[in-house]
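User: Okay, second chain of the day. Same drill as before: sequence in, structure tokens out.
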Amino acid sequence: MARHEHKAKQTRGKTVLTAVFALISAVWILPIVIVLFNSFKGNSYVNSEVFALPNAASFVGFDNYVNGMTFGNYPFYLSAGYSVYITVISTGLILLCTSMAAWYISRVDDLFSRIVYYLCIFSMVVPFQMVMFTLANTARVMHLDTPWTIPVVYLGFGAGLAVFMFAGFVKSIPLAIEEAAYIDGCGPLTTFFQVVFPMMKPTLISVGVLEIMWVWNDYLLPYLVLDQTKYKTIPIHIQYLQGSYGRVDLGATMALIILSLIPIFIFYLTCQKHIIRGVAAGAVKG
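Assistant: Same drill. Structure tokens below.
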């Protein structure tokens, strides 16, 4: 009888937790749903009936999407191309360089390695606003103010979290595996890329997802570094959806926000099962 009551209490507890988390999820999803509905409404209705569902009078179909992609003299596909390039190259640089750095830090336990590791940890707590103007000036002086070179800047800012997660994971890899590779004649690079790097897959995916979401949605760094007359990423393109006298086309803005969310949303759903696994692997040990 007592066992039955205990199981009943557990069931009720799970039901309550499910309801609470479902409510929290609804609160988080609600803004996205509102943006989606407003992307199909006329601009005047977006201003006056923000929370109303589209109806026969307010519904404009895909006109907002067309207007957003054809607004002004700067094509949307060019902004999308810059965003894709910057995101892919920046994430690739971060994954490659920080995984190698974390392996070195974890295996060569000397003063230099510890200093580099703690500097990476310290960079995680430094607000971007403290260094953004100095960074923008430095990027211009070093000619890092183009889409082709800005991934180097992202590498610097994304290194802290990535090194922390990779270093924790490397410390959980038995050293005997690498020693066996050395006995078989593998050098450091061969050992890393053929033995250690494949074993990092959970953390690689986890860090990759986090970095892609950050770089894709980032507005401030490209805005400060890039020449806005030549280069615009998607977040910057959305900001410039305004006509004469500062009038903003909210319908087109909502439409482009939805378009910018779709790729990252699909990517996140595809890789979400690896995120917790990678975070746990990189943060529990070390």
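Residues 2-38 form the longest helix (37 residues).

User: Thanks, on to the next one.
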